[in-house]
Predict the structure of Class I SAM-dependent methyltransferase.
Amino acid sequence: MDYYNTLAREYDRLYSDSRYMRAVEYRVLRDEVKEDYLILDVGCGTGEHLAYLRDYNIVGLDISIEMARRARDKSGKFVVVGDVQHLPFKSRTFHCVISFFGALNHVQIERALKEIRRVLVKGGVFIFTLANLYHFRWILKSLFRRGWRDTLKAIKKRRGDIRKVVGGRRIRVSTRFYSLREVEDLLRRHNFQIKYTFATCITNSPLDNLLYKSFLKYFGGYIGAVAVKR
Ligand SMILES: C[S@@+](CC[C@H](N)C(=O)[O-])C[C@H]1O[C@@H](n2cnc3c(N)ncnc32)[C@H](O)[C@@H]1O
């Protein structure tokens, strides 16, 4: 957790250029979230979506106390420090669970999906994005930097480190990447009905607002889904 506790200080500055990704996330939320929902944001980070949905009944959860503190201060919402793999809530509590920008790339996904399903009411909606294994801009960069052999190796491994320098300190976190096919399989196995899938960071421009559900979603930075608990 050292990674996110340290990153918390710089998080909003480091990701201040993510407005096109946020525009797609907000659009999906506007389409899917109903006024009377009780919502849980898992891996809420510094509270981007808690603030966006501040007129709704929404609770945040994050494993990093520094992130949780910032989220509470930014949004004025209730934020719990906890682990998505062991959610501290009663079964069938929430109408909607959201998780954006890769919080679920750092966890045992089977365990997290089981927990998210447990805390959702029947018919409840799960909306999330996860870092994409087949992000074409990453693949192009990697081909230039490391060549095709190492790029193929990295893709096969499905795992990698995200590295940052914060306040002169090097930090890194292990990340598991997913393809859209894998995400669809996981959701079906956990008995979610997929309403639609989408992507963020396809072109990282206003075009993403048009392309987010198109075929190009297979190659965006983040793959997303709107799924309903059966
Ligand atoms: C890349 S940030 C995304 C934050 C936010 N959702 C956003 O869109 O800006 C990932 C967040 O997931 C949190 N996280 C990582 N593992 C977690 C876990 N097991 N349970 C809950 N949160 C976790 C991190 O602390 C971090 O705040």
About this structure: The longest helix spans residues 136-157. The chain has one domain: 2-229. The first strand starts at residue 38 and ends at 42. Residues 100 and 139 are 22 Å apart (CA to CA).
